[in-house]
Write a structure and sequence with these properties.
CATH architecture of the largest domain in chain A: 3-Layer(aba) Sandwich
Strand content of chain A: 15-25%
Largest interface: A-B, 56 and 56 residues
Shape of chain A: elongated
Distance between the termini of chain A: 71 Å
Oligomer: homodimer
Largest sheet of chain A: 6 strands, parallel
Chain lengths: 341, 341
DNA sequence: TATGATTATAAAAACGTTTTTATAAAAGGA
DNA sequence: TCCTTTTATAAAAACGTTTTTATAATCATA
C-alpha cells in the first residue's frame, strides 16, 4: 500500500485534506503561499496520489482499453504501437487485453476499468453486448468492423475496393487465372477483399473457380502450406497470379512458389494487402495495397478520446487503400512452351 | 457511470449490501437460498461491480503493468503476446505503457494502478527510483537488465555467453575476420553480446578491429545501411562473417550483402540472435542463437504473480541461448582468387 | 461601525466496494 | 426454562480521493 496519503500530507502541512487536494489539482482558490507550502510538503513526503481513490471519486480512469485476440505480427504491432503512443501523447494509458473471454471483456468494460474501448473486430462482440454497452453509455470504437450502430465509432479499411482494385490491376497486366488466398471467414477484411476480387473477376468475365480460393489464415505459414498443397493437388491449374489476403500470406506464398522453382514475378505475380513494414524489404519487394495501419490506430484513439472528452457522437471512418506497385508483380509473359518447370 | 450499484441490488433483493457483497464473492456464510436469490437479482439487473470501488477497498487491481519504449518488431510482439496471454490465464490484465516519461511511469506504479510491474531495461529506471520502489514495496520484474537489487526480480537472456558461443562457432567454421553489428550501447543485450564476441576473438588470438564493429541499432534498416556504408568505405576489408546483434540486423545485413552481389553463406556467413519467428523462413534460413522470448515473458509474469500472491522474494533468472544452425552460415571456402566480386 | 460580500480554509459528504462489528433469531445444553 | 452458542443478516466503518457545503476571517460599502 502506498503509505503516504493525502491525509499525511495534510497533517504534515497543517492544513485540511481539501486544501491539499486543491493545491495538487491546482484549483485556483488557494493563497499562493499555502499552495506552494503544501506542494513542498507533498514532494518531501514523496506523495503520489492513489489512483483508485481518485478514479472512484471522479469516475474517470484516464485509461483506454484495447481488446483483441492477438498482438502478434506486423499488423498488430504497428497498430498497438501507434495506439499506445497516441494514448501517451493524450495523457491516457492503454490497457491491452488479449483474450476471447467475454466475461473478462465485459467486466472490464462495464466495470469502468477504462474510460473507453477499442475493439478489434475478430472478437465479434454480439449484438446483445453492444446494446448493453450502449445503454451503459460506453464509449467504443470498433476496428475493422462495420457497425450499424449509431452511437459507436468505427475505423475501417475499405477492403472491398482494395480487393477490387488489386484484382483489376492484375487483370490489366494480362493475368487471367488469378487465385485468392483468403484469411478466416470471420474476418471482415478477408471477406471484403475476396468480395472485391470476385467482383472484379466477374466484371471482366473471368473465370471464378472455387479451386482458386485458398485458405491461408492471414499467416505466412498458412499461406505457405496452402500453396504447397495446391501445387500438389492441381499441378495443371497453375494460376497466372496470386492475390494474397494480406502481405504475410503474400510472403508465404512467394516462399512456397520459390521452393517449387517458380520465379516471382516472371513466372507468377503476387500481390498482397497492408504494406506492412517489411513489405518493401522483402525479395522481391511486394506489390501491395497500402493500409495505413498506424493511421488507423491514431484515428481510433483520437476519435475515442473526443467521444469521451467532447461527447462527440460515434462516427464511421473508412480509409481508402493505395496500390503500391513493387517487384512482386509484372506483365504476363506469354510463353511459347506452356509447360514451364 | 455504471448505473446499477451494489446498493440497487441490495434494495431490489431486499437485503443489505453486505449480504450482496457476500453473495457475489461467495463468502460461505449465507443461507443458500438468500445467496441464489441475490445472485438472480444481480443478474437480472445486469449488475457489474465497479472495479474502482473494489480496488480502492481491497488494494488490489488484478492488473500488471508493462513499461517499455516500444512494442514493435518480432522481439516485442512475441514478448507482449506471451505476457498478455499468461496474464489472462492467471486472471490478470496487462497494462502496456509505451513511454519514456518518468512521471507517467512512476505515477502509475506508485499510484497503485497495477499490482506489479514488468520493466523493459531500456527505460533505465535510475537507482533513486528503484530505491523508492523498494521502499514502497512495489513488486517488479526487470527484463534484460542485471539488477543488483535483492528484492526485485529479473529475467535475462545470457547474452554474453550467446555472443561468445556464436563467435566460437564462426571461428570453428574457419572464419577469421568476423564483424559485429551492434545495437545501441544502452542496451544490455547488445553490449553483452559484443563482450562475448570480443572475448572469443581474444581467446583465439584473432583480430579485434574497431572497423569491424558496426552500428545497426538492432533494426533491419539500421543494419542494412551500416553494411552498405561499410562496404563503401572499406571495400578491401570484407569480413569472412558477420555476427549480427539480433536477427533483424542479420536480415538487414544479408539483404545488403545480396544487393552487392555477395552470396550468403557461400561468400560470407551471417549469424544472428533471438531466433525470431521469421528467422527460419528467411532466405537463407538464419543461423542464430535462440532466445526463448515467449518463455521469458511467461517466466516474468509467473514470477511477478508469485511475488504478489505468495510474497515470493524477487530472484534472478538467466536463460541460456541455444545455437540453431541453419542456412546462413557455412565453412569458410578458401578461394584461390582472394579478390572475389 | 455594522452589514454584506469576498476570500481562504476546514469539515463533511460522497464515490462503490469489502470487511469488521453488531444484532437478532434459532438452536443446543443443563 | 434460561443461558450460551451458533447462524444469518444488517449496520457501520473504512479504503483515498474530490467536491460540496460550512465556517471564519478579511474586506468593501454605506
Amino acid at each position: 500500500m502506498s503509505k503516504v496519503t493525502i491525509k499525511d500530507v495534510a497533517r504534515e502541512a497543517g492544513v485540511s485534506i481539501s486544501t491539499v487536494s486543491n493545491a495538487l489539482n491546482n484549483v485556483d482558490v488557494l493563497n499562493p503561499e499555502t499552495k506552494s507550502h503544501v506542494l513542498n510538503v507533498a514532494k518531501r513526503l514523496n506523495y503520489v496520489p492513489n489512483l483508485n481513490g481518485k478514479q472512484l471519486k471522479t469516475g474517470k480512469t484516464k485509461m483506454l482499453g484495447f481488446f483483441t485476440t492477438s498482438v502478434s505480427g506486423p499488423y498488430f504491432y504497428t497498430l498497438v504501437e501507434s495506439m499506445a503512443r497516441e494514448c501517451d501523447r493524450l495523457g491516457y494509458g492503454l490497457n491491452v487485453f488479449v483474450t476471447r473471454d467475454k466475461g473478462v471483456i465485459m467486466s472490464n468494460i462495464l466495470g469502468r476499468r477504462v474510460d473507453g474501448v477499442i475493439i478489434y473486430e475478430e472478437l465479434r462482440i454480439d449484438n446483445e453486448d453492444v446494446i448493453m454497452m450502449m445503454k451503459e453509455k460506453i464509449k467504443a470504437v470498433f476496428l475493422d468492423r462495420f457497425l450499424e450502430n449509431e452511437t459507436m465509432g468505427s475505423v475501417i479499411f475499405d477492403s472491398f475496393v482494395a480487393g477490387y482494385e488489386a484484382t483489376k490491376y492484375l487483370i490489366s497486366l494480362g493475368h487471367k487465372k488469378i487465385a485468392y488466398i483468403s484469411g478466416v471467414d470471420t474476418m471482415f477484411d478477408s471477406v471484403q477483399r475476396k468480395e472485391g476480387y470476385l467482383a472484379a473477376l466477374r466484371e471482366h468475365q473471368l473465370l471464378v473457380d472455387d479451386d482458386y480460393v485458398l485458405q491461408g489464415y492471414f499467416e505466412e505459414e498458412g499461406a505457405y502450406n496452402a500453396i504447397k498443397s495446391f501445387l500438389h493437388m492441381h499441378p495443371d491449374k497453375l494460376p497466372d497470379a496470386f492475390l494474397a489476403g494480406n502481405d504475410l500470406s503474400a510472403i508465404g506464398c512467394i516462399r512456397a512458389l520459390k521452393s517449387h522453382g517458380f520465379d516471382v514475378p516472371s513466372d507468377i505475380s503476387v500481390v498482397g494487402f497492408d504494406d506492412i513494414d517489411i513489405a518493401q524489404y522483402f525479395t522481391p519487394p511486394l506489390t501491395t495495397v497500402r493500409n495505413q495501419i498506424a493511421r488507423q490506430g491514431v484515428l481510433a484513439i483520437d476519435h475515442l478520446v473526443r467521444m469521451i472528452q467532447k461527447k462527440e457522437q460515434g462516427k464511421k471512418q473508412k480509409l481508402a487503400g493505395e496500390l503500391i506497385v513493387r517487384g512482386s508483380s509484372q506483365v504476363k509473359i506469354q510463353r511459347n512452351d506452356p509447360g514451364q518447370e
